[in-house]
Amino acid sequence: MEKQLEFSTLLQKLEDLEPIHFLVLGLKNSGKTTLLRLFGEITTFKHTKDFTVETVVYRNITFTSFPISNEEFKPLQRKYYASEPGIPLIPIAGIIFLLDSTHSESQEIIDAYNDLAEVIHDDELWAVPLLIAANKSDLNKLCYFHISSNFNHRRLSTRRKNRIHNITGTTGAGLHAGLEWLVDEVLKSRSGGETEGAPPSVQPNGIAVELVKVAWDLFRRVIV
Fold first, then answer.
1. Annotated binding residues for GTP, as ranges?
2. Which residues are annotated as a binding site?
3. What is 2-223's CATH number?
4. What is the DSSP letter of 18?
5. What percentage of the chain has pLDDT greater than the value 70?
């Protein structure tokens, strides 16, 4: 409840805007459902055996999550972000992508990138700001550079704002800072501010810490 109150205070910044729609995406077991519970009660709709959509509505804000690892789901996925004639949808204002940071194999991160790219390169989503939430950071997590180099978030779009944040979905730790950035990007876009064309941003403090770790590791190898 404490985290829900903390997030509700942050999301109040969006209350005066038109309805807001966020996508919460990620591979299986990345922590999507756990994260959604931090925002409120989940409504579940099962289209097929393997395609279940979870939704949380908080005031004028909707969070929607669906599977992305199967190309056969594409027509179902588009129903939640692409308007059809006579069926207008609330445009997607931001995307939260849950990345399991306990993955140790580079190929797993590359696969996550490829699955995400299949969705967000659609015309309706190509410039939507993207928060990459490296989940399970309380466990044996990957460093920022490993995620960045293999996930290659800079290639997701040359005009898309990106940011990587380490989070712990079970407690919400680290998520507030990421959401604050995403909310600010939405406010800029709704006020006519410039939100495209700038280079991807990251956590400066997080990068500094990782640089120290890398430098220390190299130093130890040299003296040994």
1. 26-33, 135-138
2. 26-33, 48, 135-138
3. 3.40.50.300
4. S
5. 71
